[in-house]
Protein: Nuclear transport factor 2 family protein
Organism: Aurantiacibacter flavus
Amino acid sequence: MTKYSATYAQDRAEIEDLMARYLFAMDYNDFDTYAETFTEDGTLEYARGAVTGRENIRASAKAFKEAVGSLYQDVDGNPAILRHVLCQSVIRVEGDKAWHTGFWFETANDGPRLPGSDRLTPTLGTFGIYEDELVRVDGEWKFKYRNIKNEFLAGRDSGKVNPVLAMDAHS
């Protein structure tokens, strides 16, 4: 059975807050805040590859969002509005280090227009697993490494084994 430290609840709340700020920053094109969720030398690994360092992460996130706007469009040809959701999360904290595995999905307004309405049908788009290593820097949790697994992309899926077991193997 997992043992939790006396400060686990606070650490977990701070890490969950970091993850929420990360998603809001991405969804609302706030690339400065997005990059600030990483350490100075942090690494983001995702469908386009791996980038290291805040400035590179900022630039890569901005370019990715611009590309996504041309791929996901509503029925009128406008870039779709995408919103990400983090569901179940497992977080292990050991002092100033932490590991996280969580399930995410995104929803968008790129479905068909409802009959007799201006309202667009929301769709469930992509989904996957976050694999994270976090560190506390000057009292704040930051991503040291984030790997975004995409269950719909060959070679980027999470595999057939419970991903929490891989997180638990880290030390």
Notes: The two ends are 17 Å apart (CA to CA). The first strand starts at residue 38 and ends at 46. The CA atoms of residues 45 and 116 lie 43 Å apart. The helical segments are 8-27, 31-36, 54-71, 163-169.
